[in-house]
Amino acid sequence: MIRSYALLLFCVTLWGSNFVFGSMLVKEFPPLFLADVRLIFTSLFLVMYAWLTKKFVKLTRRELGLLVLLGLVGTLANQTAYFNGLLTTDATTASLILSLAPIVTAILASLFLKEPFTLRMKLGSALALLGTFFVVGVGAGLSISKGVLLIVIAMVTFSASMIIIRKLTQTMQPFIATVYSTTAGTLFLTPAAMLTLDSAAQISREAWAWVLLIVTAILMQGVCGIVWNSQLKTVGTGKAAIFLNLQPFVAMLVGFLLLGSQVTAIQVGGSLLIVAGVVVASVRSKQSAVQRLANRSNRYNV
User: Fold this and answer.
1) Of 247, 232, 223, which Cα lies nearest the Cα of 98?
2) Which is nearest to 213 in space by CA: 83, 21, 47?
3) Can you list the alpha helix ranges (DSSP code H) found in the chain?
4) If you placed Cys at 79, which of 29, 35, 43, 44 could pair as Cys (CB 3.0 to 4.6 Å)?
5) Contacts of 109 (CB under 8 A, 6+ apart)
């Protein structure tokens, strides 16, 4: 069990750090180009792993339609909003906003999948929203920037993708659904990235930037996803979900150490409220299928 906890902590530490690395990389590459190249390497890794483990299956017409929708919403819209948002939003604030995803997923599930939205979930949502208000409202002088709005869109589209994945995994295993959806999203994102790439675009020639791009794509979006899913069987979804709440703290710490980002008392207080809200809303004796799926996926914590 200790080994499983260590592996979960390892994944969450990398995912939290990824907000900071994304902020660094978006200064070296155009946002859509960055998102596309990362997804290309992630897709290649996942496809190779699926091929070696013989997990490929044939798709039905319904599954293909859901994959198309998932590629548009969960990849094209999500990654476009996320990396453009990181241009003007610090990694800590972005991680705190995206930590609301489990709650938003539960709300969407109640609307589209008729899943119950309990009193505890409502209370947790209120606490988390209050924390977000302190971080991006009070902390920014009640000025909601374009970058913050883009990160909110990234969070909502991620939550919406969880609903689509829930539909998809009714007939398909979560891992292979992730392989197909990531690959489909890459196919949608690549033309958009190429169309927005002009002669004036600054693409880094620094070796460290390309190494960081490729390593984070494979390690954080590929390897960690596989490790996380494998440990859920041992630890259980409820306990694993608690580890996810550490991501904002990791983003704060890594941002402070690598970028010298200032950590304010308001951010700390807001993050505590957000974490408390997510814990209250999601840690229950029986979790919904959508929340279990949201905990497994996390493929866009970039």
Assistant:
1) 247
2) 21
3) 2-25, 31-52, 61-70, 78-85, 91-98, 101-112, 119-132, 146-168, 174-195, 207-218, 224-235, 237-244, 247-254, 265-282, 289-297
4) 35
5) 115, 117, 163, 166, 288, 290, 291
Alpha carbons 171 and 148: distance in angstroms, whole number: 36
Each of the 302 residues of the chain gets a pLDDT tens digit; together they read: 788 888 888 888 898 888 889 989 999 999 999 999 999 999 999 999 999 998 898 999 999 999 999 889 988 899 999 999 998 888 877 877 887 777 787 788 888 877 777 777 778 767 777 776 776 555 544 457 888 899 999 999 988 887 888 888 788 887 888 889 889 989 999 998 988 887 777 899 999 999 999 999 999 888 887 887 677 667 665 566 566 667 777 777 788 788 777 777 777 777 787 777 767 765 554 444 444 444 544 544 44
Residue 8 · residue 295 · CB < 8 Å: no
Q: Which residue has the tokens 């094209």?
A: 76
**Tokens 């408390």, residue located:** 276
Quote the CA–CA distance of 94 and 89 in Å, as a whole number: 6
